[in-house]
Amino acid sequence: MRRVRLAxxxxxxxxxxxxxxxxxxxxxxxxxNAWAGVFWGGASAFTSALSHAGGPPFQIFxxxxxxxxxxxxxxxxxxxxxxxxxxLVPFFALGQFSPVNIKTSLxxxxxxIATNFLGxxxxxxxxxxxxxxxxxxxxxxxxLELIRSGLTSILAxx
Length: 158
Prior knowledge:
This protein has helices at residues 2-21, 34-51, 55-62, 69-93, 99-125, 128-156. By secondary structure, the chain is an all-alpha fold. The protein is globular.
């Protein structure tokens, strides 16, 4: 798990640095590559299940497509709803749903609803260019945390 976290962090770090430092490819926007979608979607689901780090592989595939903001957010919502739905049975089998976890989730539902409305509002008011700048910056920060977390756990032998 710790090596997966480190690998995802390094890949995401490289992706964002490449976006920031390399010239943009002269590619016409068209349909995304289906095989790349299968690869990055599978990587995202796999890393989501193993280390809750499915975001960066998803972003690597979706961010370069420069979708409309609401389509981007809707795609992410549907994708991760499906991924999380698929994790329910294995997580139940592993005993991840204790009474304490269920109670904590129930207490946090109002906060989850409120922050979702806040997120929708923020997406609507944020200009598209800033939306993508923020998204790449967040992927960069997440990559740094995944690298830190992965290296710390590897060095600690945990």
